[in-house]
Amino acid sequence: MNLWDQSLHDNPLIAILRGLDPDRALDVAGVLVDAGFRIIEVPMNSPEPLVSIERIAKQFGERVVVGAGTVLTPDAATSVCNAGGQIIVAPNMDPRVGARALDLGAKW
Predict the structure, then answer these.
(1) Range of the domain at 42
(2) Is 67 a domain residue?
(3) Tens digit of pLDDT for each residue in 12-60?
(4) Is residue 2 one of the residues assigned to a domain?
(5) CA dist., res. 38 & res. 36, Å (int)
């Protein structure tokens, strides 16, 4: 079973960390992981979301799926994946964003 499927099986809830400050990313993610969360989303309209995603992915990437919400462009999807993100959530359903996410191996 891949990490996405295992994470959904373990806990189908997604922790959405709107407004997360990168300096608190590891502490907040650690509490969530300890509480059983396995999917973490950092919205792109948070302060320095790519920094938070990268930190969470490096620290917890083998145990959780991390990614971004409010991904509005294909370039933003690329940036999220380059930071270690594995899921892309886009509120506007731009097919180009979905295609880029899939090309990069992320869930859409």
Answers:
(1) 8-103
(2) yes
(3) 999 999 999 999 999 999 999 999 999 999 999 999 999 999 999 999 9
(4) no
(5) 6
Please tell me the distance from the alpha carbon of residue 87 to that of residue 31, in angstroms, as a whole number: 20
The average pLDDT across 90-104 equals: 88
Residue type, 85: G
For residue 76, what is the domain's CATH number? 3.20.20.70
Our CA angle for 21, 8, 72, nearest 5°, is 50
Contact 65, 34 (CB under 8 A): no
The whole-number pLDDT of residue 92 equals 83
Alpha-carbon span 28 to 106, nearest angstrom: 23
Question: Does residue 47 lie within any of the structural domains?
Answer: yes
The closest alpha carbon to 92, from 78, 105, 106, 76, belongs to 76
What tokens appear for 32 in the block? 């969530």
Q: pLDDT value at position 107?
A: 74
